[in-house]
Fold this sequence. Notes:
With 308 residues, chain A is an all-alpha fold. In chain A, 78% of the residues lie in helices and 0% in strands.
Amino acid sequence: MLKFIIRRVLAMIPTILLVIFIVFFITNIIPGDPGRTILGIKGSAKEVALINEELGIDDPLLIKYVNYLKGVIVGDFGTSYISRVSVLDEISKKFPETFKLAVIATVVTAIFAIPIGIISATKQHSLLDATIVISSLGLASIPGFWLAIVLIMIFSLNLGWLPTSGIGSIKHYILPIATLSLPAIGFLSRMVRATMLEVLLQDYIRTAKAKGATRRQIIFKHALKNVLIPAVTILGFGFSGMLSGAIITEMIFGLPGIGQIVLNAVRMNNVPVVLGSTILLSVSFMLVILAMDIIYMLIDPRIRKQYI
Amino acid sequence: MIKHKKQKKIKTIFSRIMANKVGFGALLVIVVILSFAVFADFIVDYETLALGQNPTERLQEPSSEHIFGTDSFGRDIFARIIHGSRYSLTFGIGCSLFILIGGSLLGGLSAYLGGRVDDLIMRGLDAFMCIPSFLLAMALISVIGMGLYNIMIALVITSVPGSAKMIRSLVLTIVHQEYVEAAELSGASNFKIIVHHILPNASGQIIVNTTMSIAGLIMLAAGLGFLGLGIQPPMPEWGSMLSEGIKYMRVKPHVMMFPGLTIVMTALAFNLLGDTLADAFDPRLH
């Protein structure tokens, strides 16, 4: 068990290096003019050139990457061009909020989508099933940012039930979580339905039926377990989308988190902040996948056998 | 003979789509939007209606003159949506084709070469897919700048890894089928196996995935536009039109409602078509 975890963590290291390289490469394809970004229009050409020189703008990409890595190892993700504060300080305090939002939305998605998908599959060809199939595809076709605004219009402006933005109570989180979860529920419930239909065709289900198991027993005892694992996998890999979604949702609902910081950094071409937050989000996603793998190993004897 | 069989297969699939009311409706919506994009200039004038500002007519409710009303600059929202379809469909259909080409090359190569090269490519793609793709697209655009081609580059680069992995696993499943082994044993060349066995059997899944990816790309592009990272105003792009409308959502909700509904309808149409296609290619699954 411990051996498995250690091996998985070690295997993450090259992937993290690769992730950092990809993000670094993409944000440094064009050298840019950080001196100008830092000093603004007031800075003289000479000062701008001096700062660019100091930041090693003209160094080869690989050398810049190695220098950046050296910093990352000791926890130095560079300094924001705009606020001149250390990137890690700027994002690490607010990052847990974003992570929390994405986790809660994922859990809410699972709570709704899995039962809906299973009900839909067990009642195949019924009116209920058809309604679920069409509306889940409809939900999956709504862009999150528009959904957020429509929810605000309905529940905040017209009905006055929920606040439009800000923090303070649980009520403030209902709409943001609905914004993140609804499209995901549409997507996941379709997947669960398809998996369930496939599982119900398997031989072991037929055997169970032949042995006289009731429909309830078949669904809960034999089929459910085999539906849960693919569902959790989809949720795990969807977590990266949840993180992106959380950033935009935070911006729309004025929630604390790194959303506003990242968006401003992207707009101002504040490369160190964009780079640092993208790496942080990617690594947190990898840790979620790692946690998922460990849980699998705990619950699925077939997977456990491969490692022990 | 094979050609005849192929035509017959296409005919069956087409007739299955036509028999499905939902699929037919989706196809109809797509044809309408496509013809809007192609004939936009004949439907409504670009310069005067979609771009021309008219302060005396600003923020008008839908009427017979402006069926979707006007925006805060007095521009006709219907005209802007019609012309905006060009951007959205370019992003959706154009990018999905490039993604398909890139994904097939990378995924096919990886599956074909196997061994160490395959491991290496897979490692790279796995790392790529750990990065939240929307964030990566945003980061890329912040560096290379906005504009039609740059946005397309960002969307294609961030989507190719997923497509490559899908195509690789698809190819590997087919390669290990008995009929491919039989063809190999009977001395068929690699080229012949690819053309006669792998392509026809992979095409269904690939067409379905590509159709559904169009919906996703249209939403992604609109999301970039919404954040001000897409096609810049005053050009009519659905996402940026929507974000301009937010300021007036209390008093004139139609300004953001119509672009939003258009995005949802278009995405839904492509998703429904993909769903119908999946059933048509493989009726067992439904």
